[in-house]
Structure formats: C-alpha cells, structure tokens
Amino acid sequence: MTSQVRGAQLARLLGQWHALPGRRRSPDYAALAGAVRGLLADGRLPLGVRLPAERELAEALKISRTTVTAAYRELRESGHLASRRGAGSWTMLPGTHRVASTGLWTPLDDRDMIDLGVAALAAPPELLPAARAAAEDLPRYLGGAGYHPTGIIELREAVARAYTERGLPTSPDQIMVTNGTQHALDLVLRLSLAPGGNVLVEAPSYPNALAALAARRARITTHGLAVDEPGWDADLLLGSLRQARPKLAYLIPDFQNPTGHLMPASLRERVVGTAHAVGTDLVVDESFVDLPLDGTVLPPPTASFDRHSRVVTIGGMSKPFWGGLRIGWVRASAPQVQRLAATRVGVDMASPVLDQLVAVHLLADAPAIVAARRAQLTAQRDALLAALAQRLPEWRVTVPHGGVTLWAELDGPISSALARASEEVGVRLAPGPRFGLDGTLERFLRLPFTLPAADLVEAVGRIAAVRYDLDRGGRPQWREPAVIA
Questions:
Q1: Which stretch of DSSP H or E encloses residue 84?
Q2: CA–CA separation, 29 vs 159, rounded Å?
Q3: Torsion 416-422-426-429 (CA) sign
Q4: Closest by CA position to 375, among listed 325, 324, 456, 320
Q5: What does the alpha-carbon distance between residue 152 and residue 68 come to, in Å, rounded to a whole number?
Q6: Which among 92, 21, 89, 25 is positioned nearest to 57, based on CA atoms?
Q7: How many CB atoms lie within 10 A of CB 230?
Q8: What is the per-residue pLDDT for 110?
Q9: Which residues of 35-65 are buried (b: 16+ CB within 10 A; e: fewer)?
Q10: DSSP symbol at 416
Q11: How far apart are CA 5 and CA 118, in angstroms?
C-alpha cells in the first residue's frame, strides 16, 4: 500500500515555504511547487508517497484551493507528481532524472552540477592496472562455483594483515568480505538487532546508517556531538550507554562522518568497558581510518580494547580507493563471522570474485596509493577552508585532521533553504537535517573536500552569492510561541 502524508504533516515539512529566496517574485503556486521539489531534493519527502488532497492541503496551509491545484499541476508538468482520478497524487522523479548516491535526484545529463552531496574521491590511476592484473588471476577461480560467502582467502588475508599491522592481531577467519561498508552494516544489523531493538548513535551521523537502522525499525537514542574537538562528551556518552542499555551502539570514532572528529584512545577504552558492563555490542565504522591528514597519529583500533567479542568493526575500499569498487568487510570473532556468513546466504550469497581480486592488487599498493590520496585531500581541504574564510567568514568550521568532510556551522538555521537555492545555481549540497533524525541540524552543512580545488572554490563562490540572496529575499516571519500555563 502507498504511504500517505497528511495535510498538517506536509505543512510542517514545508515550513515558511512562501519566504524562501526569490519567492516574492514568484506566484504562490510556483513557490509552493518549488518548495515541494525542494523537499524531494533533500530527501525529507520520500518518493512514492501520496500527497494530501488539494482541499486538505489548502486548509492546512490556509491558502486557496486554486493555489494548491495550480501547484500540483506544475509538479505534474515537471514530472515530480503523478495523479490518477480516484487514486490521488503521489511523488515521483522526472523521467530524465535518477537518484544519486546521496538520495537526491539529479538530471542524467547534468554535467555542470558541482556535487557536494557525495563524500568520495574519483578512482586512482592504479585502478586500471589492478583490474587488468585481476583479470589475469581470474582463471584459477573459474573451475569452481564462484560462491565464497566469507570472501576469497587472498583478500581476507590482506585485510587481516592490515589490522595486524595496526596493532590488532587478526586472522583471516575473523574477516568476512562484503559488498561495501553499507552492506557490512546491514548484515550485522540483520544478525544482531531484532526489529524494534534499541540502538545508540552519534548525532549527527551517517545518513545511510540511519536509514539502515530505520529499516530495522530500531528505537534510536542519540549522543550529540560538539562542534569543537574532540566532539564526544565522555560523561554523556558513557551515561547514555548506562541509562539506555542499548542492544547496539553504532559509532564512527575515526574522523567521524560528518564532523571529522577523532575519538581519543582513553575514551575508546572506556566505551568498550562500559559496553561490556551494560551488555551492548559496538559496531565501529572505520570507513575513514586510512585518511589521517597533517601527520595525525591514530589511536589504537577500538577493537584492541575488546576482550569479550563486544566490538564488530566494519570498513571498506570506498573512501581511500574508489566508491565504484563495492568491497567492504566485517572484522569480528571467528564464530561471529560464521554466523554472519549463514545470514548472508539468504541475502546475496557472496561478493564478486573479480572485484575481490582487484581489491587484493590495490591493497598490495596501498601505501603509495593512500599517501597520494592524503596529499590530494590535504590540498583540497586547505583550498576549501581558504575559500570559506574569504567568502563566508561568518561560518564556523573546525579543521578536521583526517577524513574527507568539513562540518560547517552556519550563521543561521538555513541549511535546507540554502541547499534548495544552491541547486538553482549548479551546486548540490547535503543539508544538516539529512544527518539527524528529526529535522534538526538546520544550522549545519556538510562540505566534502573530495573534488578538485578549483571546483571547491567555484562552489563556495556560488554558495556565498546564494547566501547573500537569502538575506535580500527577506527573513522568514516566525510566529510568536504560544504560552501554555
């Protein structure tokens, strides 16, 4: 059955839709249609959801039904709404658009868009030689069925060796290869979290992880991160674990996404100890662990403090190498890996052998590849910071010493409005609310520095111009809060 959004719910999502930039120069129906498209663009209004009837929405917004009728007609003409007599109207994407990896819609032929919604690098030059070498290795696997639920032995050995070199002794039996880090998280949740289970996450956190938890109907408790380093408040985090006693806690201690914070070793040890005491399993996402910048020394892996198999670590190739190579992994105890493999058989059987062989060759060259990535990211980060300081000095940014993202505190609660306006000038942004649960974080914006420096500088220039237009367009008129006695 198609889900439906009621008139009052859509009205809350739309907020001050008539006061967004340039709306005074547009008819009300065009402003309303643009605001709905904006909700679709930043993911706050899902695809395939049935919108309220015209009369219901008109009453909720306190506008004429004629305005809503005209707005719905414009949405149908732009391909964002489908209607059928007697069945209603539901959201969709235009036929010339696709859903990007951020969840945002993007034109198929839109090559001039600077996409700051994706925090990932283009492929390194070493990828093609690795792919050719992998193709030469493939014949020795062709005599078998090709199903390796835990992954081919060469790749598991390479991943285990990398953990051991970081001071965390690991055997290949403790590694399961997955189709990316997101797939690793999904499998761990399938095995370890019953529907409706309680989970602790950071706020803000990775949107796709939040989506995976929502798919499990998890009851989520959040630990708010500060803008300043180190981000985590030790007493509050440990207190949340003791009070909520969640089944799982999902943490990103290494250059947290989106804030870039690095959890100190002392807190990692205390978190593991507290988790064991209250019966919580820790899922530690190490997606960015290979990308320290400025000579930053990494703390020991969180799992190095684990003595009771409470820590499951997930990681992958997407951030240091390439997102198009869908290779990730889980590091856990050998019995847990076997249980994960049994769970996986009912999902996707195994990862592609050829992709795993490519990963083996890339990991063999990892020192040189990752060193080049770090130098590239440092230069691009510094270019982005300089552009922000020059064009948007009112924004507050803590310099990350690793990872691929800046978490900017804006000069007002304008993140979603700024993202919608920036789309019009060819810059795609991931607004702050995408990294939370309840529509908050409007004062924040994630800015990845994974694009070339020239593109980042150009993007900041366009964003700054749009930010100026937000002020010229007038500020939203906020209602006086009602007094309840």
A1: strand 81-84
A2: 56
A3: negative
A4: 320
A5: 57
A6: 89
A7: 15
A8: 56
A9: bbbbbbbbbebeeeebbbbbebbbbbbebee
A10: H
A11: 28
- d(Cα 118, Cα 374) in Å, to the nearest integer? 18
Q: Is the dihedral of CA 260, 261, 265, 267 positive or negative?
A: negative
Phi, psi of 236 (to 5 degrees): -70, -40
- Contact in structure between 155 and 310 (CB atoms under 8 Å): no
Q: Give residue 140's identity as a one-letter amino acid code.
A: R
Alpha carbon of 64 to those of 60, 75, 108: distances in Å? 10, 17, 36
Interhelix angle 54-61/65-77, nearest 10 degrees? 120
Q: What is the pLDDT of residue 21?
A: 53
What pLDDT shows up at residue 23? 43
In the prediction, which pLDDT does 160 show? Answer: 98
User: Contact at 8 Å (CB) between 402 and 292?
Assistant: yes
* Amino acid identity for residue 306 in this structure: D
Distance CA 62, CA 82 (A): 24
- pLDDT at residue 27, as a whole number: 86
How much is the pLDDT for 483? 34
Strand, helix or coil for residue 4: strand
Residue 415 token pair: 């993140």
Contact 131, 365 (CB under 8 A): no
| Segments in the chain below pLDDT 50 | 1-2, 22-24, 99-104, 108, 474-485
Residues 412 and 445: their CA atoms lie apart, in Å, by 11
Identify the pLDDT of residue 94. 78
Helix (H) or strand (E) holding 405: strand 405-409
Helix, strand, or coil here: 260? coil
CA distance linking residue 459 with residue 180, whole number of Å: 29
